[in-house]
Amino acid sequence: MHPVKIVDLFAGPGGLDVAAEKLGVATVGVEWDASACLTRRAAGLATVEGDVRLYGPSDFSKANVLAGGPPCQTFTVAGGGAGRRALDEVLHFVKRMVAREKQEDIKRDLSRLEDERTGLVLEPLRWALAAIDDENKDPYQAIILEQVPAVLPVWEAYAAALEEEGYSADFGILRTEEYGVPQTRRRAVLIARWGDEDVALPSPTHQPYRKGVIRGVGDQKLESWMTMADVLDRHSDFFVISNYGTGGDPKARGRRASWEPSATVTGKIFRNRVVSPQDVELERFSFSEAGCLQTFPANYPWSGRDVGQQIGNAVPPRLAMHVLCAAFGWGTPSDDQLQSLKTWELREASETAIPHNASQANV
Ligand SMILES: C[S@@+](CC[C@H](N)C(=O)[O-])C[C@H]1O[C@@H](n2cnc3c(N)ncnc32)[C@H](O)[C@@H]1O
Q1: What's the predicted TM-score (pTM) here?
Q2: Pocket test for ligand 1, best of 7, 33, 45 (most atoms within 8 A of CB)
Q3: Residue 12, SS3?
Q4: What ligand 1 atom has the least distance to the C-alpha of 317?
């Protein structure tokens, strides 16, 4: 297929957009966080700063690809009753939307939910259906969605809905280290392509990481997983000790060595201690280093507040490149394309001068 432009909902600092632009596909992101928008503008990424719910496909008439990583806090509460209830509600709303129940009724019922953020995960579906129903617009040619593993049942419901509408879809959990990201992170991904062509998630290129298993042991058709040392310019061994998630027991804290992939990069990455093998305190990660563990270019212009959260929220550009290529039917990205993620060509911010007003945001 021929992707002209991607409209990226909940675009964050631009993990997916960096990958797309490096593949030569134009993007425009919708994002409401002022700091993430500062980073995006510093990087020269086209941005509409605002609430995704206030826009729709007709505001972005040039885009023929839809992407999104909607927030999902309300139903990721592991095992909690509230989380489960929210998930059941979301699945029910998917059915109502596909049945083309009146938008006002759906909006009204969404606003009555215990947590209004629950409805955000339905926004990409609203956009996809609106494009299908719009006589002046073609359906999105490809759809790409990404979130934490707990969202998989929602992607499953999306896939069924999109298939009914005329898409071919695939979804599943991808492990980032299996795509050459120097980090273990699991993500629920859905890709869909308009028409009845078979679409499939990207095949792994690297071996899965297993604690205690020597690097390089495993399926020899795949490359060895990447380590922190492979991508960071530190010249001696180190350990990263994570500072949370263990109920305060210091002995139980997560520990990864520089010759392993990083643990999942979260919004709290800068709280992690970095120590030498002799337990001497070393400098904690810089913005650039944390970005590199997520496969952002080393010179990515992180800006604004809470850069840790921006980095932790993002989809790793290298994974995004694999996912985009699979969604477009382009196979595996070339080495040159993957290597191009190492640096970012800073561009004029003027390129991003897109009006914030919905009625004028025809981009
Ligand atoms: C999981 S992050 C997505 C990261 C992005 N996919 C990337 O790769 O960089 C979700 C983002 O949605 C944004 N967000 C949440 N609610 C929003 C809304 N109603 N409108 C626009 N953006 C929103 C958050 O500020 C956050 O940056």
Answers
A1: 0.93
A2: 33
A3: coil
A4: 8
Q: Compute CA distances 51 → 11, 63, 117, whole Å.
A: 11, 18, 12
Say yes or no: 325 and 242 in one domain: no
11 lines ligand 1 (CB under 6 A): yes
Calculate the alpha carbon distances from 211 to 66, 78, 255, 256, 302 in Å: 37, 24, 11, 10, 32
Q: Is 315 in the pocket of ligand 1 (CB under 6 A)?
A: yes
71 lines ligand 1 (CB under 6 A): yes
Alpha carbon nearest to ligand 1 atom 13, residue? 10
Residue 31 CA to ligand 1 center (angstroms) comes to 6
Tokens representing residue 192 in the block: 């869909």
DSSP string, 108-152: HHHHTSSSGGGGGGGHHHHHHHHHHH-TTSPPPSEEEEEE-GGGH
Atom of ligand 1 nearest to the CA of 120: 19
Looking at the structure, do residues 57 and 142 belong to the same domain, yes or no?
yes
Residue 316 shares a structural domain with residue 347: yes
Start-to-end C-alpha separation, the chain: 21
Q: Which domain holds residue 258?
A: 228-309
Question: Which SS3 state, helix, strand or coil, does residue 289 take?
Answer: helix
**Which atom, in ligand 1's list, is nearest to the CA of 71?**
10
Do 337 and 246 share a structural domain?
A: no
Tell whether 137 and 238 lie within a shared domain: no
| Ligand 1 touching residue 30 (CB < 6 A) | yes
> Does residue 104 fall inside a structural domain?
no
Q: Which atom of ligand 1 is nearest to the CA of 16?
A: 8
CATH number of the domain at 162, please.
3.40.50.150
Q: Is the CB of 151 under 6 A from ligand 1?
A: no
Number of domains the chain contains: 2
Q: What is the pLDDT along the chain (363 residues), one digit of tens a residue?
A: 899 999 999 999 999 999 999 999 999 999 999 999 999 999 999 999 999 999 999 999 999 999 999 987 776 655 566 677 888 889 999 999 999 999 999 999 988 887 778 889 999 999 999 999 999 999 999 999 999 998 999 999 999 999 999 999 999 999 999 999 999 999 999 999 999 789 999 999 999 999 889 999 989 999 999 999 999 999 899 999 987 655 555 665 689 999 999 999 999 999 999 999 999 999 999 999 999 999 999 999 999 999 999 999 999 999 999 999 999 999 999 999 999 999 999 776 544 444 544 444 556
Asked if residue 154 has its Cβ within 6 Å of ligand 1, the reply is: no
